[in-house]
Design a protein that fits this description.
Blueprint (H helix, E strand, L loop, with lengths): L5 H8 L21 E6 L6 H8 L2 E3 L23 H15 L5 H14 L5 H16 L2 E7 L5 H7 L6 E6 H8 L3 E2 L1 E3 L13 H9 L1 E3 L7 E7 L7 H4 E3 L5 E6 L5 H14 L4 E7 L5 E3 L1
Parallel strand pairs: 6-7, 10-11
Antiparallel strand pairs: 1-4, 2-9, 3-8, 4-10, 5-8, 11-12
Length: 291
């Protein structure tokens, strides 16, 4: 049983499994608001935003494209493994795979691989984790949503300064369609993610994908994730069509042009007649009212 390189050593000794991202949160355990929202521009510079209504399409973005430089990039800290923990991982693997070994042979196996273990090269382990994460992001996507439809910062940042729209999704239909998801937690300092057994694969995924720094708390984000079974997911792969019934309301920006409102009314009448249309307005204190 040989581990001639860092890749195999991590896979075996760490029981490392990039498929952690495919583990989906059990829907019945989720506590969700009735509606979750997506703020969108409505102009010619963002044609893919319009397809949310015309084609009912959403986009699962790679974490490598995120504005937040640490979002989803808080990796499991295999580089924090102590020598004692590394040795015991090799010993555990021997008991698991070398069924005919005596206790002395199991210890000899662990001694042999511990002395040669690339896991003890912390810089190499850290670099390997970064490289594998970047490879994963080419196959992994996140859809970001929020539970609030009247957040001034969101209207300004993600809906063209009140000139766009805010689309409301039925959270039950949406999250069931994508197989899970959940609420983002916010931290002053992102949590340290430990290898198993301290953190399970599911705990590692939740801490990595559903944790953000406190400065982003104004977004009050919910998200769901998707793994694409291709080496490099294209924009076409990342664009997913929702059931029409998943969309339940459209909120028009307070500063949206009348001709653009008419365009949306026509699209809704044609494609989504069950969807309600609401209007946002800006109050004197810059808060938003939806009516």
């Amino acid at each position: 049983m040989l581990f001639p390189n860092l890749h195999k050593a991590l896979l075996v000794a760490c029981n490392f499994n990039m498929a952690v991202f495919t583990q989906e949160t059990v829907y019945d355990k989720l506590q969700l608001p009735d509606t979750v929202y997506k703020y969108r521009f409505w102009d010619d510079a963002h044609p893919c935003h319009k397809t949310l209504l015309t084609n009912q399409e959403v986009y699962f973005a790679s974490p490598l494209t995120f504005e937040d430089p640490v979002d989803c990039k808080n990796l499991t800290r295999y580089d924090l493994l102590t020598d004692f923990e590394i040795y015991n991982r090799y010993l555990s693997e021997s008991f698991k795979h070398n069924h005919g070994y005596t206790t002395v042979q199991h210890k000899a196996f662990a001694d042999h691989w511990f002395e040669r273990s690339p896991l003890r090269d912390k810089d190499a382990v850290r670099q390997y984790m970064i490289e594998k994460f970047e490879e994963l992001c080419n196959r992994f996507g996140v859809l970001s949503l929020t539970e609030k439809n009247a957040l001034p910062e969101m209207w300004i940042k993600y809906s063209g300064g009140h000139t766009g729209i805010c689309v409301g999704f039925d959270s039950k239909i949406t999250f069931q369609f994508f197989g899970g998801g959940g609420k983002v937690d916010y931290y002053k300092v992102l949590p340290t993610i430990h290898p198993r057994p301290k953190h399970s694969f599911e705990e590692q995924m939740v801490l990595q994908v559903y944790s953000k720094e406190a400065k982003w708390e104004f977004e009050q984000e919910y998200r769901t994730q998707k793994l694409f079974f291709v080496d490099n997911a294209t924009d076409e792969d990342r664009t997913i069509k929702l059931p029409k019934r998943a969309i339940k309301e459209i909120i028009l920006g307070a500063l949206m042009q009348d001709d653009e409102k008419e365009e949306i009314y026509k699209i809704i009448a044609s494609e989504l007649p069950h969807v309600s249309i609401k209007q946002a307005s800006i109050n004197k204190d810059d808060s938003i009212t939806i009516s």
